[in-house]
Each structure stands twice: as structure tokens, then as C-alpha cells.
Structure prediction request, 208 residues.
Amino acid sequence: MSTRGRQAEAARNDLRLLQAAHEVFTTQGFDAPVSAIAKAAGVGMGSLYRRYRTKEELLQRLCLIAMERGVEAAQAGLAARDPWEGLVLYVRACVAYRAGALAPVAGTIEVTEEMSRTAGKAIELSGQIVSRARAAGVLRGDVTTLDVSLLVEQFSRPAPGPPSEEHERVKQRLLTIALDGLRAPGASELPGAPPSMEWYQGRWESPS
Prediction:
């Protein structure tokens, strides 16, 4: 096999590993053995360990990809001319690839510089989407960027049991209800203070 062929095969194996790892971790829990990931990806353990020496490295890579997709979704949302449609596009895109499904791993792995940098960019761009929608009068004024991020987390969690069309239909129905709840002016006062950035970021601090 040529060098280019080997590189292409390695890239395909890596993609299968990442897809399998995301599915295994989010459905079986983050304590799931890496052997289950290799089996789901159809690759050997040697291939997995050549690419990711530890489970932590694999989780760091998955988190980084989720953050990068969050950046892409936010950029697409900002490119939409209508502020409300841009917000909806952003939220639906993040939910579609389950951007918040890895949130439970917060505090259990080390945050790399690249993760921190990408997360900062994602937060900045999502903040712009929320600010633009609020300024246009289409987003209720008491909704914050973190409220939207945490909403995405809730809808990123997998439903019990195997995936099904019915689960997806119900999720999209409830997501539409939730999105309508974000519209200005809002029918009910939101209870409690909004989540703080210190609390949000603090979740990712490794326990001492």
C-alpha cells in the first residue's frame, strides 16, 4: 500500500474510532472500556492505542471536536440574516450533533490549551448570537448565553434504549417547545439568578 493509501486508511480508522467512542461513552457511560469502542469501530486495540494512548486523550479529542463544531454552528448562525433564525439554526445544529453530550466528563479530564482556546471562541461567538437576538427584540431579555448552552446540553443527552425515529420525533417536538420559550417577551419570570460564567467554567476544573 502506498503512503497516501495508508494515510487515508488511518484517517478512516480514526473517524470510525471517534464516532464509536462518542456513541459508546454517551450511551454506556464514561466508564465504558475502550475495548467496547474498538469493537464498535471494527478496529483492533493496537490501532486504538496507536492513535490514543489513554482514555483521557480520546475524551480530550472528542471534547475538542464538539467545541470546534460549536464554533462552526455559531458562525453559521451569525451568517443568517434574521437574528431569530440564526439563533434557532445554532441551537438545532448543536443539538443535532449532541454538542453537550460530553458535559458529564467535566472535571474528570485535564483541559488542554487547545480545548480552552476553542471553548473561548465558541463562547464568544454564541454570545454574539444571543446578543444579536436580544438586541433585535426576538429573544427574551432575561435569557443569557449560558442558558442557551445549558439548554443544548439537556437536549444532547441520549434517550433511554436504542435510537429510534420516535425518540427523534419527540426530541424535535420538545426542542421546538423550548425554542418558543426563548422568544420575547416571555410569559413567566425565570426563577433564580442566571448561571454564572465562573460556575460554568469551574465544572471543568480537575478535582485536587
About this structure: The mean pLDDT is 88. Residues 107 and 206 are 4 Å apart (CA to CA).
